[in-house]
Sequence to fold (408 residues):
Amino acid sequence: MRLVKPQYKEMTDESLMIAISKGDKRAFDQIYERYSGPLLGYFMRLLWRDREKAEDFVHDIFAKIIRKPELFDPTRKFKTWIYSVANNMCKNEYKKQEVRKNTTNGLDHTYAVKDLNANVFSEVSDNQFRDEFTKSLEDLDDKHSEVFKLRHIDGLSIKEIAEVTGISDGTVKSRLFYATKYLAASLEDFNPVMNR
Amino acid sequence: MEKDLVDIIMEKSYIELSANEKAELGEFCSSESEYNQMKDVFHGVEGMQFETFTPKKETKESLDSLFDSSFPKVAPIWYMSILATIVPKEKVVYRQPLVQIAAIGLLIFLAYPFFNSDVTDEVPQFSEIESPKSSTPEVNKIVGTEPAQPLEVVDVVVPSEPILVAAVVPEPVLAAVVVGHSDGVWDPATEMAFSQPASESPEMLDLLTATF
Fold:
């Protein structure tokens, strides 16, 4: 029996979700603290850097957690589940916008950010390597760059990416290594780190 | 996060790879130089500080009000914890701790009389209460301290005539009553009452048979 106050920061996402389903507000606050930022970044990446829309999507996804916490299966990993939900929300948005064709993860080249001045990392980076890296990443087609971002920015494993995007492990690996090779080739002559 | 190929590339050098790992990586990088290129990219990405996003305050406030409206009357956390522990909803009734405790309590209650019955082989022992032995009774003490009072003489009023007189009283019975021994024959010589069969006293026998 637990009589002492639960340590929310040490609780797993799955335990927090169980607590939320029982109406524990502080558990919700903790989940929000952990995932609101990364999800906002994820939505911004997938929704054409539209901050307002991304904010709305963050609100909607957490409202879904509040209204129907039972939708989450505690035997699953929360992180994978929440990113799957986020991915599906983006897919639905693409359908609404009728802009998506020929990609498996719901991303459209034409809607990807091609403007080098508005790349993802330029706001916080004045590093040339970083700018070049970002540029190269944006030059990649979205299905490859998205897998790369999910792995390195959102911190999902290959298996989790496969679950979130609904593609096979092999395809994830293939796209990830394709993106990596592409980036390595783009940055080969640029960064001294790459030239050893 | 579980380890995958990317972690292996970041952690190990090419020569440290096992045969299985080399086989798994074979389709993505065929040579050591390719492997090292990938390693550099991964390390380069890991060292980068990516932009962090923070949602607007209004988003959280809106969610807070939604949460409050969805869970309006929630018990305190400590109560929830206790209740969830002793009456876990996910367990069947007979496996819930509260039910188990209640069952044990009921068993103890029912079994208690069997272990506490009064039927024993032991001879009851009674305690003896000794009267306090005092050389000088309390009454005497009190009397001794108070000055002697002359006893008051009370005149006994005796009615001159009896209140009730039986109309006809048989002579032997009257004699017995007079001598004060109605349950026997009084012998004035020995001053003792003794019993005798009713057949020896026909008057008494007549009296008895007339009664029944």
Summary: Chain B has a mean pLDDT of 74. The CA atoms of residues 132 and 138 of chain B lie 11 Å apart. The radius of gyration of chain B is 57 Å.
